[in-house]
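Structure ticket #2291
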Amino acid sequence: MQQDRIFRIWGTEGDVQNYSFYRFDDFVTEHRPARIDCLKIDVDSFDFEVLRGAERTLREHNPLIVIELNHALAKRNQSAGEALAWLSSQGYRQALVLDHDNFVLQHGRDHSDKAQMLSLLFPPPLRFEESLDAVHGREIAPPLNRATIQFGSSIDGSKSEGTGTAALAGKLRTIGRRMLGQGAAQNQNQPHDFSSLIGRTIESSDHIWSYALVVDTSSGSPPDVQKDTILVLEVAVEVHQGKLGIALGGNVSSGFISPERIVVAMDGVQRVLLSAPAVGLESLIFRTTAPEGSRTFFSIRSVRAKEKR
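Resolution: structure written out below.
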């Protein structure tokens, strides 16, 4: 047993408790799998720890490694560069960089003790051209109603101070600006009708992972949609600058209830599909995944929906 901080939902303070930690090498010794072809690791801030706990497994099986290495490692005074250097020392010589945070690493044939080298391969950005037409089901009106611009984001250059605690912080900043004679940003606390945002340019804040736009789906669902069905949304969006994450959200404790789709800036409209059970679906979320200090600019072109049973 060891006391540590576990981040069950990233962005929270984490839960500090006594946990039982288990090395992957010990798991392999106990269960004795005949082969290990791939090791997928995504355990916020503990990724490097998992690697080091699998050192013997990596040496004996040479699996492909799919791993997320990003700023979360700093929570444990580690870095992506440190983890990649360690992987190179274990004989991994090639890494496919998927989105600057996620890597696919392959073991090399060179087992010499010479200088460690690791080649990074950067594929071109992926254009999303997914279509709701390929989904079998009944097309319905998108269950989208109110849309709220989040703190620090803006529509067509008009800043929002958000709501709740964020709004209070924004008001304090506004008072400070007035005292300094700097003027105040326009406040847009009132929710918008989602249809009024179609085609307009939305600018995120410059903090990575911060939400730019949250669209309420809990009160806009058509009455004839059964709660045991799966809702599929086709979101057509144009990302002018930065990198945009799009996902479906549940309540605060459950977080995302669909995989997040990451859309990078490029010319033209891109289309992504998102799906989740109708029960528990509460929001459509747009957030910036661009590096800290930079903003994401995007325009929503359309949203379509189908129900599947």
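Closing remark: The radius of gyration is 22 Å.
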